[in-house]
Structure formats: structure tokens, C-alpha cells
Amino acid sequence: MFVRHLNNTFNKGTVLKPQQLLHIVSANITKGGNIAIQVDSPLSASTLLKHPAEVQKVAASAIDRFKPTEEPDLTLDVPWSGVVIHDLPGPQICQALERCTLWQQLRDEGKVDNSAIRGTLKVLCRDEEYPTKEKVSLLVRFEDQQACNRLRKDGVVLFATWFRVSNYQGPKRQSRCSSSPPTMTTNSC
């Protein structure tokens, strides 16, 4: 319903000129209370960016649990690529995440440019397994595909040990858990 309202507002309303028609593919509210909108083209995305108040107004009228803020902030998400670092020592990763030292270790030992990392570092295991698991895998997301290619080709050194790296293929199955293992956002440390 929200997607239909957005499309109607922008395409049949008075917001856009006929040559600027856009197609909103899907929309959802994230756990953080933000709205994620998928559009069919970069032109559609940049068009939405110019009209944050209209997006907010439609969201407030179409979505019961959406609580609008005073000033909406629309940002354009960029595509990302991910790699998985395999068989890392679970206890050491747990400590590094808790102490916020994993970023430094990735930069210093792994020669990973932290500015290229997108979002969070995520331990890939079930909630109940973390932090007792002996070996864990770590998802690292990048905006730059070349960074992924280099890591896949060369692997990465962490804790003075070389680790294998592969492409991230997405989740294998739907988790039934409401929470997930710890992650470290780019802004948390």
C-alpha cells in the first residue's frame, strides 16, 4: 500500500513533471525505524532525494507505525560487495569486537582500507553459538569491488595467521532468532 501511495503521489500528483516519472519497486521499515525504498533506476532515486518532505508525508499517512521526524534525511545507498573471512578464532574475534580493536587489526595486519568498508563487520553464526564457538566466519562489506577481489585472491592475515576469503553469497536460510551475533558499525569505535 505504501509503495502504491508513493508511486501515485509522485507520478499522478503534482510533485513531478510527466517526463520525470519514476517507479518505486518496494519499500520497507527497517529495525531501526528507517524507511528503505527500492527504485528501478538511479534517476528515480535522485528524484526522490529532492523531495524528502513528500516521502515523509506519504509514509506518515500510509504506515501506522511510522513516526515522522522533524527533518527527514534521505540518503542514496550505494551497492556493496561482501567477502567472508573463514575459520577465524572465535574467542579472539569476540574479544576484538568487544574491545573495538578489530578495525585496527584489519587495517594493520590485514592491510584492509577501513574507509572502503561499508556498514558493519558481522560474525556469521547462530546467536546461541557465539561466543563459545571455536571458529567463526566474518562478513566484511565493501563499496569497492576491487577490495573484495584483492582479499579473495590474497586472503587476509589477522592475529599473525593467514585466513581464506571467499565471496559473500547471502544468507543460506531464514533465521528464526530475533537477535543476531554482535556486529561493529563503522561509527561505533
Question: Could you describe the 3D structure shown?
Answer:
The protein is an alpha+beta fold and 189 residues long. It has two domains: 61 residues, no CATH class; 95 residues, Alpha-Beta Plaits. It contains six helices and nine strands. The strands form three sheets. The protein has a five-stranded antiparallel sheet. Strands 1-2 form a two-stranded antiparallel ribbon. Strands 6-7 form a two-stranded antiparallel ribbon. β1 and β2 form a beta hairpin. α1 runs antiparallel to α3.
The CATH superfamily of the largest domain is known as RRM (RNA recognition motif) domain
Provide the CATH top-level class of the largest domain.
Alpha Beta
Helix-and-strand structural type: alpha+beta
Helicity level, as a percent range? 25-40%
Shape: elongated
Main beta sheet, described?
5 strands, antiparallel
Query: What is the domain tally?
Result: 2
Beta-strand proportion? 25-35%
Biggest sheet: strands side by side, in what order? 8-3-5-4-9
| CA(first)-CA(last) distance | 39 Å
What average pLDDT do the residues reach?
77
| Tally of DSSP β-strands | 9
| Gyration radius from CA atoms, angstroms | 20 Å
Topology diagram in text:
Blueprint: H1 2-11, E1 24-29, E2 35-39, H2 42-49, H3 52-62, E3 81-89, H4 90-99, H5 102-108, E4 117-124, E5 135-142, H6 145-154, E6 156-158, E7 161-163, E8 165-167, E9 183-185
Antiparallel strand pairs: 1-2, 3-5, 3-8, 4-5, 4-9, 6-7
Jot down its keywords.
Alpha-Beta Plaits, 189 residues, alpha+beta, 2 domains, 25% strand, two-stranded antiparallel sheet, 6 helices, 9 strands
